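Subject: design request, 191 residues
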């Protein structure tokens, strides 16, 4: 059990108590995100929270749009001299913000619950692409695709053996609960 204390300093006794509590809450969330035991509010936290809120809304609204794409990193077998699998990597090109790093939007999707819909979309697209490669490429029948999944996705779906897609566990999930993540098994297909 961990506790984080969010604090606000003010010299104006007439300041709005609701605003002070909101600012203390922002400091608390900022402290929790940075593994701190306490955090003192500063104005940059409000700007960061507004930015995060806008980005989360954009993410939710555009999951199925062409803003999100998948690039595939091939894994090459030197003995067989061929590509044996590919790793699906999600990319987000925002129309006004440009390229947004997976290191930014994946944790945001995990914390807001959007990771479920984002994960479904990635699985659908990666499996569709794999099926195309397996039927159209010479030697493609044995090709596989690796898709990174979050612990939250595993908890809800118990991963995806129905598509023969080996899942990789996200770094954040391994750090938060390595024993729980390692104990999950792939039983049901992705919806």
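Subject: RE: design request

Done. Sequence follows.
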């Amino acid at each position: 059990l961990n506790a984080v204390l969010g604090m606000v300093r003010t010299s104006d006794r007439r300041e709005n108590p609701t605003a002070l509590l909101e600012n203390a809450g922002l400091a608390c969330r900022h402290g929790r995100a940075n593994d701190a035991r306490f955090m003192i509010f500063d104005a940059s936290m409000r700007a960061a929270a507004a930015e995060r809120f806008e980005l989360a809304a954009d993410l939710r609204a555009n999951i199925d749009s062409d803003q999100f794409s998948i690039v595939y990193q091939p894994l090459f077998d030197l003995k067989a001299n061929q590509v044996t699998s590919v790793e699906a990597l999600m990319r987000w090109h925002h129309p006004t913000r440009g390229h947004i790093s997976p290191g930014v939007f994946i944790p945001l999707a995990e914390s807001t619950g959007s990771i479920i819909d984002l994960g479904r979309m990635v699985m659908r697209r990666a499996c569709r692409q794999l099926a195309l490669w397996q039927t159209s490429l010479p030697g493609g029948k044995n090709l596989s695709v690796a898709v990174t999944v979050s612990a939250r996705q595993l908890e809800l779906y118990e991963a995806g053996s129905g598509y023969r897609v080996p899942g990789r566990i996200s770094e954040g999930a391994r750090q938060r609960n390595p024993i729980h993540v390692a104990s999950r098994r792939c039983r049901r297909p992705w919806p």
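Residues 159-167, 173-191 have pLDDT under 50 and may be disordered.
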